[in-house]
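note to self: dont lose this again. the chain is below, predicted strucutre after it. 230 aa total, dont forget to put it in the shared folder this time
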Amino acid sequence: MKTNVDNIQIVYEDNHIIVINKRPGDIVQGDKTGDIPLSEIVKQYIKIKYNKPGNVFLGVVHRIDRPTSGLVIFAKTSKALTRLNRMLQAHQIKKTYWAIVKKRPPKTTDTLTHYLKKNARNNKTTVYELPIKDAKKAVLHYRLLASSDQYHLLEIDLETGRPHQIRAQLAKIGSPVKGDLKYGYQRSNPNGGISLHARQIDLKHPIKKEPLQIVAIPPENDIWKYFKTT
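---
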C-alpha cells in the first residue's frame, strides 16, 4: 500500500500522541471504499521518521466525517489509547468546531437539543424533536462569530458526540453547513468537502496530565480566508 506522508499536516506530536489537521475528503479509518485512510498514512510517517521495523502501533481515538476538515487525535502507545478512550467516554475531551452556513440561525447563541437516529443504509441521521425508540439525545451549543454578505461563521461546542450531529442539527434549524448536499445544502463545495472544521481540542495529556489546547487552521480557500481576516 503506497502512502504519501508529505500530505499530512501534523499539529502536535510527542512520544504518546499525534494530532493531525485532516483535509476534507480524507478518511480517518479504512472503509468499504478501499481508499487509503489517514491512519495508514500516519503509521507510514512514524515508520519512516523513527526508522521503526515491523508493524507500527497507532490507535484511532476518534473520527470526524470524511468531508469535514480539522483535528484528529491518534495514540502512539496502547497506554495513551486506553486513557484517551476513557477520557472520551467521561466527556473529558472538549471539541470545538467552526461551521460556515448560508442562512443565519434564529439566535446569535443557542443550545440545540434533539434526538438522532442514524440509518446505516444511506449513512444519514434523522433528527427528532422528541425522544423516539433507538434515537439518542444530542446536545450542542453554538454562537455566531462573524457574518459576510452571504455567509455566517458559527462556533460549536459539542456536549454529545453523535454521528453527523452538527450537520444534522444545523440542518434541522434551517442552517445546513455550506456544501453539505446530504443535509440539504443546494450546491457542493469545489473540493467536495463541506465547510465544517474541527477547530480546537482541549484536554489533559493522557500521560503527562498537563493541559493541552490544540488548534488547527481551516483549509486554504477563499471563504475560510475571508473569515480568518474579519
